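Long-time lurker. I teach an intro course on protein structure, and each term I like to show students one example going from raw sequence to a predicted 3D structure in token notation. This year I'd like something fresh instead of my usual example. Would anyone be willing to generate the tokens for the chain below so I can use it in lecture? Attribution to the forum is fine with me.
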Amino acid sequence: MTSKQYKIYINPKNIDIKDRGFNFGDGVFETVLVKNNSPKNIKEHIKRLQQGCELIKIKPPSLELILSNIRKAILRYPNCILKIYVTRGLNEQGYLFDEDIVHNIYFRTIPKIPSIVKITGLDLKVSKNILYPNRSFYGIKHMNRLEQSLVAHELLDNKKYDDMLLVNDKKNIIETISSNIFFVKKVKSRLYFYTPKIDNCGIEGVMRNEVIKWLRKKSYKLVIRSISLRKVQEYDYCFITNSIKGLRFVNKINSIKFSDPDPILRILEGLVIS
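-- Reply from a regular --
Happy to contribute to a lecture. Here you go:
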């Protein structure tokens, strides 16, 4: 399907090697959980996709265009993972491109949803790779994910851990390979929730924002701020969030152990994907 500004591909078998998304990471993407023909938090995903397009100067596709093609993409797969990619389009070579370039939008369904083996008891290791500030592109899911790929390779060499924790150049905690992170402190009988601010690197996860909205709706105390790796031991509980895997609880970061998450699990059980 082609329009004046976009060419649409649904589960293509091949991608043109001249696509700038392939060559330069010149595009943005989203990963969406689909259950019973319902894409979860889809408007939030599309909003971030559109914001990412605006940031890298690609004309954002409309909500209606994306939704109509999602319906086609998931017709045969009512339960799947849906990937949506928007790239700048095709050009023969070099960084320069025509002003009237046609953008490509790809919809890819992955029929098998990976089972979530562990909801609690995750062990994280602090990565040796540093997330450096990038105020131009923080928060969005652009298609150049080399940092995450390198950290994923690092995890292969640390198989006893479940995920890697990334910090910035100031040793402040940012996220894991593909999840945002929250900490909880218990003061007397009150719970205080904390999550790193995303202001110069990292991803503003859709599930992160859902948890933030839920905590505020329930009037829990939430603080979004820089969280130093050196002060991790001050927190009682820790959990990570991801749109596909939902909310999962951390047992320890390196050698620093957290309390049994049962009290928090009971509070947040509605946000856990089973």
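Some talking points for your students: The two ends are 36 Å apart (CA to CA). The mean pLDDT is 93.
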